[in-house]
Amino acid sequence: MLEPSQNDELPVIPGKRYFTIGEVSELCAVKPHVLRYWEQEFPQLKPVKRRGNRRYYQREDVILVRQIRHLLYEDGFTIGGARQKLSTPEAGEDTSEDKKALIQQMISELEEVLDLLQAA
Asked: Are the C-beta atoms of 68 and 45 separated by less than 8 Å?
């Protein structure tokens, strides 16, 4: 995630539901053709497309564009490296497999507690 200190030069994201490609371009200091290219390279970036293939970005998309911009322009990642960084979970983040294992463990522990309560 971008730290607020890393985001000082970019304008604050307004509290709108949808943003046009031009607005996102200004908010993220990236040209529109770059945003269209990033849509092809980063599967996470999927703006809503409406009439005439017009793109409408949501707040999460704008934040993701800022993350991509930071990885590429500030941290020096390649497109492939940034894609991999965004697709792999951060240290301390649980993957879906970890979550499933944790849920199964909790279920078995709760069943043991239930058995103890029923025996008493």
From this structure: yes
